[in-house]
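To: structure subgroup
Subject: Chain for Friday's discussion

All,

I'm putting the inputs and outputs inline so they're searchable in the archive.
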Amino acid sequence: MLKSLCKSTRKPSLSATVSRSLLRRRWYNLSHGPYRTSLVSNNYPKHRFYPTAMIRFSLSSISNPDHIEFTLNGQAIDLSAAFKPEWKGSLDRRWLEVQLPDGLPAGESKVVVRLTDKGEKAKTGQGGKMLTSLEFIEYGGQGRYVRV
């Protein structure tokens, strides 16, 4: 049974959700330089099985959205809506979710997370300015983000 599941060549279900965690090490200190990684989408050039996606990640000692730059394929992701106003100035660990209503492009995508100049100069909390987790989630069909 397990062998047949592993060798399956079926196309993914349109209602499926695919999730994978990309942070290869936990608690990456952004003061040591940018965090770089890549991922490969489950979309195909002519078939978008996963039309929407989300980035879920957590940070520590990053108090404002202008202290960090998050890029996907060289395009900056606006994090301002993910930083709740009541968190302003807090150095505590925070969990953020950013929706990608157009999903991930087919093929490989490059991700870079770095401190901005403001972020490098800002106060550091206990343990440093950390990217503590990073996950990309792709949603199929009627996934979490349904277009209206």
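Points worth raising on Friday:
The chain has one domain: 16-139.
The helical segments are 2-6, 117-121.

D.
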